[in-house]
Design brief:
Strand content: 5-15%
CATH class of the domain at 4-233: Alpha Beta
Bound molecules: iron/sulfur cluster
Radius of gyration: 24 Å
Structural class: alpha/beta
Largest sheet: 6 strands, mixed
Shape: globular
Number of helices: 22
CATH superfamily of the domain at 4-233: Cobalamin-binding domain
CATH architecture of the domain at 4-233: 3-Layer(aba) Sandwich
Helix content: 25-40%
Number of strands: 19
CATH topology of the domain at 4-233: Rossmann fold
Length: 617
């Protein structure tokens, strides 16, 4: 444990010391003598990013609702603090009790972004926990990980002991309960791993072997014995109204990325955008009822004092009774001036009425995601919107006094042509012209359009999982073309770092061999790779070379449907046949309807019950 004395001196010398002090409103304190399982919930990035992660708040409270468990938070210390910690031999510590990582039973990581993996290694090292699973002996914590990137856990095999695939509300409690039994027994670490491998959704990689073909592709992946499942089936919460949701969130002392109440209204999405991993892995759609949500909102406003509620989901405007939910919440909080924000509004279900209601309290910018510049390409990716949707929605918004618009696009999509790229320019300029076509008396404020163009990263469990990513030079050529074309002071063009997206693609579809390169990159000094001022592409490329791995094999290589993919052993419910069918339709530029208008047989309702699939059909 770190003494407050030692910490105090150092905190006066680093940026944002409140990142490291804890003791916020709603922080949970427990007497260490009354619990016997200590769980360090680690977010591999700085405090203000991690504290905005809904999953952490949910699992933090669920674990602490177990009498015999104490879950504490740990974040990546920023560069200046890490330097001070290493100079003063201070191990990475939790905010609740300032205990160092090696004092815990579990060190858990949430995997939200592939480029945060070097931070995982850095946190283990700072916390005096051996990086490799094989170096962790009796008495060392078990390293466990979950979250969206765990749907391809292979690049972290050898580092992480246990993966929890899918939603953790129940599986995490099952895991700590088994640990409780094991801790009372005199059985070995390996015995615990065997016991926990029986939990549905749990993957213990050391019980699986992978053999490769000469060309580096996988020949076979199989359990070392038939006591371990061949397929790992993801976990889902069937009924969200009966699923625990915190009625208090820790309230940070410093500004965080999301400084508001996150009210999760539903999980899953039925739109079927072919580039979107979340739209596939979080199926089926499961909604929370309005009464549950209003009741939760009331309690969260009381316990946090936040002045804004964000209705979070993958596609908020698809909530089956959104208008009523918004009206109920506005009715409930209008006297308290609590604002509402709808983060993910779709263009084709953009309702001005709802927006007007919401904006009575607070006016915020509007974000639209056409994703592709032409209708042809929007059909290829099955975005399911057309230009008219965008023009009508933006026109409505301008007439209502909006003047700030963000437009999200990607480059590097399958079948993309330069004409599609130029379509991004044309759409941005059309939005600009639209503003100046609205009668002057209706306009408020100066027009500001931000056109944000990211580099497409093909992800596991999407119809595009077989697609070879564009080469870095190709991304750069397309971004250069856009910079040359979009030259209007009303339109700000943001492009993403193609090299960072390339590495993200390597890790996102990597196999076990990639773990060596991640460790080497960290040994060569890589960390905070997601922060542009700390990302060093050359060190990464040198690291790949040093361990004899060709990153192109993972990023830009097209896969065949016959190839065994590193994540094929995971069952998400959506079938491989459906993903192949959708990829074929993409190549034919044909769309697939939103399955709220009729099931399109993705397969989830054959292996998972719960959700709205059955109500839909
Ligand atoms: S089973 Fe059918 S209704 Fe359910 S998510 Fe899949 S396509 Fe949609």
């Amino acid at each position: 444990m770190v003494s407050n004395e030692k910490l105090k001196d150092i905190l006066l010398q680093v940026e944002k010391p409140a990142r490291y002090i804890g003791n916020e409103v709603n922080m949970i304190t427990k007497n260490l003598n009354e619990i016997n399982i200590r769980f360090a919930f680690c977010f591999p990035d700085v405090y203000e990013v991690g504290m905005s992660h809904l999953g952490m708040h949910i699992l933090y409270n669920i674990l602490n609702n177990q009498d015999n468990v104490y879950c504490e938070r740990v974040f990546s210390p920023w560069i200046d603090m890490e330097k001070k910690m290493r100079e003063n031999d201070i191990k990475l510590f939790s905010l609740e009790t300032k205990s160092s990582l090696d004092e815990f039973d579990f060190v858990g990581f949430t995997l939200q972004y592939e480029m945060s993996y070097t931070n995982i290694l850095n946190m283990l090292d700072l916390g005096n926990v051996p990086l490799r699973a094989t170096d962790r002996k009796e008495g060392h914590p078990f390293v466990i990980a979950g979250g969206p990137c765990a749907y391809n856990p292979e690049p972290l095999v050898g580092i992480v002991d246990i993966f929890s695939i899918g939603e953790g509300e129940e599986s995490l409690v099952e895991i700590v309960n088994i640990y409780d039994e094991w801790k009372k027994s005199k059985l070995s670490r390996a015995e615990f791993l065997k016991m926990v491998s029986k939990v549905e959704g749990v993957y213990v990689p050391e019980f699986y072997d992978v053999d490769y073909n000469d060309d580096g592709t996988i020949r076979e992946m199989k359990p070392i014995s038939d006591e371990f499942p061949i397929k790992i089936k993801k976990r889902i919460q069937k009924n969200l109204d009966k699923t625990y949701y915190p009625d208090k969130f820790i309230v940070p002392y410093i500004e965080t990325v999301h400084d508001r109440i996150m009210l999760e209204i539903f999980r899953g999405c039925t739109r079927g955008c072919r580039f979107c991993q979340a739209g596939m892995i979080y199926r089926p759609v499961r909604e929370r009822g309005i009464d549950t949500l209003v009741d939760l909102a009331k309690r969260l406003v009381k316990t946090t004092g936040h002045e804004e509620i964000s209705l979070s989901s993958l596609s908020t405007s698809d909530y089956s009774d959104l208008e009523n939910l918004v009206i109920r919440l506005i009715e409930e909080f209008k006297d308290k001036k609590i604002g509402l924000s709808l983060p993910s509004l779709r263009l084709d279900s953009f309702s001005m009425e709802i927006i007007e209601e919401i904006q009575k309290i607070r006016k915020t910018g509007l974000t639209f995601a056409p994703e592709a510049g032409s209708q042809r390409l929007r059909d290829v990716i099955n975005k399911g919107i057309n230009e008219e949707d965008l023009i009508n929605s933006v026109n409505d918004a301008f007439k209502q006094g909006w003047s700030t618009v963000k437009l999200y696009f990607m480059v590097g999509l399958p079948t993309e042509t330069d004409e599609d790229i130029l379509g991004i320019k044309e759409l941005s300029y059309k939005v600009k012209d639209l503003f100046f076509s609205v009668p002057k008396d209706k306009l408020k404020g100066n027009l500001k359009i931000t056109t944000s163009v990211s580099c497409f990263v093909p992800k596991p469990f999407t119809p595009f999982q077989w697609f070879g990513q564009n080469k870095i030079e190709e991304f750069d050529r397309k971004q250069k073309m856009l910079r040359k074309e979009i030259r209007d002071k009303k339109i700000k063009l943001n492009t993403h770092d193609s090299k960072l997206s390339y590495l993200e693609a390597v890790i996102a579809r990597g196999d076990r061999k990639v773990a060596k390169a991640i460790i080497r990159a960290w040994e060569n000094g890589c960390k905070f790779d997601g922060w542009s001022d700390h990302f060093d592409f050359d060190i990464w490329m040198k690291s790949f070379e040093e361990v004899g791995i060709d990153p192109d094999f993972y990023a830009i290589r097209n896969r065949t449907y016959e190839e065994i993919l590193p994540w094929d052993f995971i069952d998400i419910g959506v079938s491989k046949e459906y993903l192949i069918r959708e990829n074929e339709k993409a190549n034919k530029e044909t769309t697939t309807r939103d399955c709220r208008q009729g099931c399109t047989a993705c397969g989830i309702n054959t292996t998972f019950d719960g959700g709205v699939c059955n109500e839909l059909n």
